[in-house]
Amino acid sequence: MATAKSKEKYTECVGKRKTSIARVRLIPASKSSITINDKDVAAYFRNDEGRTALEKPLSVGKLVGKYHISVKVVGGGIHSQAEAVRHGIARALSTLDPENRIPLKKEGLLTRDARIKERRKFGLKKARKSPQWSKR
Predict the structure, then answer these.
(1) Which residues pair with 10 in a beta bridge?
(2) In angstroms, how far is CA 59 from the centroid of its own chain?
(3) Which segments of the chain are extended strands (E)?
(4) Measured distance between the N- and C-terminal CA atoms of the chain, rounded to whole angstroms
(5) Contact 60, 104 (CB under 8 A)
(6) For the whole prediction, is pTM greater than 0.70?
(7) Best exposed site among 11, 22, 45, 84 by fewest CB in 10 Å?
(8) Which whole-number Å values give the CA distances from 107 to 7, 27, 114, in the listed order?
(9) Least confident of 3-12, 28-37, 48-57, 92-101
(10) CB–CB of 58/64 below 8 Å?
C-alpha cells in the first residue's frame, strides 16, 4: 500500500476501545517517532501511562525504534484513546509479520476490549437503576 502523495510503504490497521477509534499507520524508518493527530506523543498524552501503553506492543515484538507511527484517533477519553492506539499498533505489527502474533496474543494486546456503557432503558433512571418503589 502506498499513499498518493508519497511512495512510502506503510501498514495500516484500526484499533478500538469503548468509543475510541484509532487509525494507525506503521512506516519503516531508521529513527522511531510517534505522532497522534499531528501532535507529538508527549504533547498528546501528558501522563506516562498513556505513553507506556503505546510502547508495549513494540517492546513485546522487540521492534522499538524501527517504525515511524502516525495515528488519527477520535472519540472517547484519553485513557480509552491510548488503549485504542495500543490495539491498532499491535494489530499492525501482527499483519506486518505473522511471527509477532504469538507474543502479542499472549500479552493480550490483540484482544479488543468491547466493554461500553450500557444504554438507558425506558422507565428506568439509568441503565439498570429503577425508580424507588413504595407500597402505598
Answers:
(1) none
(2) 16
(3) 11-17, 20-28, 33-36, 39-40, 67-74
(4) 69
(5) yes
(6) yes
(7) 11
(8) 34, 23, 17
(9) 3-12
(10) yes
